[in-house]
Hints:
Largest sheet: none
Order of helices and strands: HHHHHHH
Structural class: mainly alpha
Helix content: over 70%
Distance between the termini: 22 Å
Radius of gyration: 18 Å
Strand content: under 5%
Oligomer: single chain
Shape: globular
Amino acid sequence: MKNNxxxxxxxxxxxxxxxxxxxxxxxxxxxxxxxxxxxxQILSLNQVFLLSHASLRLKEAGPIGIISTVSALFKTLSxxxxxxxxxxxxxxxxxxxxxxxxxxxxxxIGRFVGAILSALWAYIQPLxxxxxxxGEDIIFIYHYFFKKISKVFNIDHSNFLxxxxxxxxxKVLLSVCLLYTSDAADEEDS
Length: 190
């Protein structure tokens, strides 16, 4: 019986890793080619949806991170677009999602926490990479982006911070909404 469960988990992991890989390579390359803003955020939301749907099938936290890791490895085959930073994002977001399941269980609370952590990573990773690569502090980064934005829009510091907060909040709320969408999709598949 245990061997049959292993085969079931392996099939689910393979199915979702393949699906996530195809979307990351195909849609990711297409969006990169069009140079659409927020394309990484769209792909991140897709990953939350797929991992949430997969977690309903697996009923355990462990294998969820494998789906993202396999997909990140397949990202090396992408003919267009960036590879290294998306590979890092795919892997970390998947493991952050899995950490919510690991800590709180394979239930709505675990998926909720995992989705929020995964959604936030898309904002944390660029900051960390910028600091790592350029050695600048967070205040310098803030002023750099504020200066760029204030040239285009007439905005002050407090409004700029509100806009940043609202963008992040919007992404987190979309991620949480995708949990309920994946529940509905799972009910239709059953």
